[in-house]
Amino acid sequence: MKIGELAERVGVSVETIRFYEKENLLCQPERTTANYRSYGEHHLEDLAFVVFCRNMDMPLDDIRKLLVLKHSPQASCEPINDAIDQQLAVVEQRLTQLHALKAELQRLRAKCTGSHTVGECEIVRTALCGH
Predict the structure, then answer these.
(1) DSSP classification of residue 39
(2) Which parts of the chain fold into alpha helices (H)?
(3) Is 76 helix (H, G, I), strand (E, B) or coil?
(4) Do residues 63 and 53 make contact, with C-beta atoms less than 8 angstroms apart?
(5) If 25 and its partner were Cys, which of 20, 41, 97, 102 is the partner (CB 3.0–4.6 Å)?
(6) Domain chopping of the chain, boundaries
(7) Are 17 and 47 in contact (CB under 8 A)?
(8) How far apart are CA 48 and CA 41, in angstroms?
(9) Strand, coil or helix: what is 117?
(10) What residues contact 32, with CB distance under 8 A and at least 6 apart?
């Protein structure tokens, strides 16, 4: 299949596929006599796997390691579990940071009630004073 068909089947752009190729997340496709890229089912499967991992917000380096495991069906799946555990820890840390950000925004919003001018705005004053 050509790159456009591959992109359509997985739901990504042609540029995304080229990026993943440059990042060595997809093996280089064969070329036709007209020098077009020709992708096989293994490209489709690997691309779908990469997109799945990216949707889980996994770093490219981790995806590379997981792809090696994907192509080693007899290997232990423990490294896959470890990668998921690491990603869960990253998500937990982000959630903590987002909750702190939400609390700070709520605190700021509570400083300014009613209708005031920008010159009287407690949010602006807080930002300027660094408090």
Answers:
(1) -
(2) 3-10, 14-22, 41-55, 60-70, 78-111, 122-129
(3) coil
(4) yes
(5) 20
(6) 1-74, 76-131
(7) yes
(8) 11
(9) coil
(10) 38
Q: What is the assigned CATH class of domain 1-74?
A: mainly alpha
**CB pairs under 8 A, 24+ apart, for 63-69?**
63/25, 64/23, 64/24, 64/25, 67/25
Is residue 122 within 8 Å of 112, Cβ to Cβ? yes
At a CB cut-off of 8 Å and minimum separation 6, what does 89 contact?
none
Tens place of pLDDT per residue across the chain (131 aa): 999 999 999 999 999 999 999 999 999 999 989 998 899 999 999 999 999 999 999 999 999 999 999 999 999 999 999 999 999 999 999 999 999 999 999 988 888 777 878 887 888 877 777 65
What is the total residue count of the chain?
131
Q: How far apart are CA 45 and CA 10, in angstroms?
A: 9
CA angle 7-12-16, nearest 5°?
Answer: 95
Residue 28 in contact with residue 63, Cβ under 8 Å? no
> CB–CB of 12/25 below 8 Å?
no
